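User: quick one, sequence for these tokens?
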């Protein structure tokens, strides 16, 4: 990984990250997290409220369903 990608505030991002998958090596490195999940057809944990994130269903369909049910961005 180049240092250019690590110039984000990993410490600040990690403090806000709601991902409950503890062995994740991408915590706080949002650009890597987003690329990884998008490649898998998913969205990162931060796109979901905590109760939904804990299900580990990070599919785009789950995001849309959650957004439609709650009628707002949480």
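Assistant:
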């Amino acid at each position: 990984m180049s240092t250019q990608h690590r110039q984000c505030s990993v410490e600040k991002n990690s403090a806000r990250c709601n991902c409950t998958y503890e062995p994740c090596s991408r915590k706080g490195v949002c650009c890597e997290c987003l690329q990884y999940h998008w490649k898998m057809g998913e969205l990162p944990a931060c796109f979901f409220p905590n109760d939904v994130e804990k299900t580990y269903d990070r599919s785009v369909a789950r995001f849309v369903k959650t957004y439609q049910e709650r009628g707002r961005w949480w």
